[in-house]
Amino acid sequence: MADAPKVAIRCDSLHRYLGKDEGRVHVLKGVSFEAHAGSVYAIVGPSGCGKSTLLYLLGLLDQPDKGEIWIKGQMMSNSLDAVRTAARGEHIGFVFQFHFLMLEFTALENVMMPMRKLGKLTPTQMGERAAQLLNDVGLADKVHRLGTHLSGGEQQRVAIARALANQPSVILADEPTGNLDVKNATIVFDLLTRLAKENGQAVVLVTHNPDIASRCDYTRPMRDGLFV
Amino acid sequence: MSQNFRIALRFLTAKKRAMVMSLSCIILGVGLFIVTQAATSGFQEFFIKTILGTNGAILIEDKVQQTLRSLEAGSYNSGYEVRQKEGQKYIEGIEYPDILTNGVKSFHNVSGVSAVLRSTVTIRSSFREQTGQIYGINLEDHLKVSDLASQIIEGSLNDFRVQEGGALIGRVIADKLQLDIGENFEIEYQNEIHHFKVSAIYQTGVNDIDSVRVYVKMDDARALLKKPTGATYLQVSLFNRDTAREDAFEMSNSLQYRADAWQDREKSWLGVFRAFGVATAITVSVFTLIAGLAMFNTLAMMVLEKTKEIAILRSMGYTREDITRIFLWQATIVLTIGTVAGCLIGAAITYAVSQYPLPITGIFTSHKFLVQWSAKHYVEAVATAVFMVMAASLIPSRRAARLEPGDIIRGTAQ
């Protein structure tokens, strides 16, 4: 079954269990969801309701026990690890709560890292694009700073630039502002949504912040492993 | 520069303590391996060189004669038999040394053959007398099968060639009999006395040789010993000393003379060296194992410390193979630097050890600690390090590749 072109990512009846034996929990109980290009989606809900688990499944970082995931019309849920890995590099950009920069590398090198793996650009083009992205997130003067020499807000902005590096169809953000103060949270959210909309990318973010959720195009509340 | 190599290099340089720890293990392992190998084989090699330089690779002496065999008596299958003790017996000496020499020279590994006529005699100077052994040799032949030329410490071989009644005497005999170059002495054999002149004094370092052997020209020996033909043994040198046993076996079979290879003649001393080598190998193996375990721990720690980075890389499209390669690159970088530094340090320590004064006499003569400089030791040390490091790094690297990024990010990675 082929998706309509504007559907960037879609999942049907996703089930996911976590833990083992008596500690095994049915985290996702048949979740279906789709995200369209150029739209921003907020998944909200109490801790443990399965928001992040859904995000990791959508990002192909984890495999569902049941259900299907489609990215740009291609079913990914049952594909081989190599196929899912390649799809992550080409179609998905991640922004995590704790920045997750490679601290031994500079801001520029961090942004270039996904591009180097994808290998579609020359090193010069990669450098220029990374510099442009860092300029877009307001870090033009800090491109050569190591990750350790950047503040939390700056690190998260580098992470956004890195997520956008390969021009993915979907940006998945797990509490991207959860570790930032109000001012930085606003900057980061505005950046993420503006750049994604400019590039026609679907943004799916998990958040506990009602202000952030209210500013998204769509809000999908979750409870006990299901959208409500 | 590949991206995986770039990442590995940056991971390494960012974790200086871990890198220094890994490097130290490899440098110490490689360095110690080289030094112990050089020191152990140094003594053995010098001993072998000494015995080959004095008695040659193979000694051929005593003709083999088959003894009587058991015979059936009466008609075929009569059941009667005349039983004899079956076996071989040896007839001392070599009757026709020239013919046998030609036969020995037909072996492709033989580089030289020297016929030697030997007997026990009394050596007498104006100072005192002692029992010794006279060795009649053809000098030019003997120089091809021994290191006699380089063992001369006083006088000259040329004098021996030209002097009538010239003799080469050992350092210990010269000291005992207080003989100097150009001085006359007597050799008595079966009440007949011949006069000789000291042409040169040699020193092999082997006490058993330097204290008894007097080399004289073959004709002089024949005249004294009253043996116009024949020889006591043939001393044989080989191009490849390591096949001496096989060559001796072949010679013995085809020439019907007993042939002893140097490995069998010096079995007891070589056994001592082998035991010494095994003891050293055990020590080095234990140390190498400890170094390997330390390396394993360090790399395993690196993987544990980098689980977050592994998740990031996997989320960006880096494959499991990329992750394995990054950690294997780390091991390779450390291995390369470690082995180069280890070889240099090993060579430096080997040189320092070789300068250590350690006078040895008896089985050979040396004034310093003996080491052997051999590329083989370095190749073996590097090969051992490669094996240990790769074995130690493969498990953590594969473990890193198996980590599920979702599990790491959720904080549930095992």
Description:
The complex is a heterodimer of chains A (228) and B (414). Chain A has one domain: 3-Layer(aba) Sandwich (Rossmann fold). Helix content of chain A is 36%, strand content 26%. Chain A has seven helices and ten strands. Chain A has a six-stranded mixed sheet, sandwiched between helices. In chain A, helix 5 packs parallel to helix 6 (182-199). Chain B is of the alpha+beta class and 414 residues long. The model of chain B has no long low-confidence stretch (mean pLDDT 87). Chain B has helices spanning 3-14, 16-55, 97-105, 139-145, 148-151, 157-162, 171-177, 207-210, 218-225, 244-255, 262-265, 267-305, 307-315, 320-354, 375-402, 405-410; strands at residues 58-66, 71-73, 80-82, 88-91, 110-124, 129-137, 152-155, 166-170, 184-189, 192-202, 213-217, 233-238, 257-261, 357-360, 366-368. Chain B has a six-stranded mixed barrel with strand order 5-6-11-8-10-9, surrounded by four helices. In chain B, strands 2-3 form a two-stranded antiparallel sheet. The A-B interface holds A 18, 52-53, 56-57, 59, 61-62, 81-82, 85-86, 88-90, 92, 94, 96, 100-105, 113-114, 116-118, 162, 166, 174 and B 3, 7, 10-11, 13-14, 308-309, 311-320, 322, 404-407, 409-410, 412.
C-alpha Rg of chain B, in Å? 32 Å
Radius of gyration of chain A: 17 Å
- Tally of helical runs of chain B: 16
Query: Globular, elongated, flat, extended or rod-shaped: what is the shape of chain B?
Result: elongated
Q: Which strand order do you get reading across the main beta sheet of chain B?
A: 5-6-11-8-10-9
**Ranges of chain B with pLDDT <50 over ≥5 residues?**
none
Q: What count of structural domains of chain B?
A: 2
Tell me the fraction of residues in β-strands of chain A, as a range: 25-35%
Q: What's the overall average pLDDT of chain B, rounded?
A: 87
Tell me the strand percentage band of chain B. Answer: 15-25%
Please summarize the sheet with the most strands of chain A: 6 strands, mixed
In the CATH scheme, what's the topology name of chain A?
Rossmann fold
Number of strands of chain A: 10
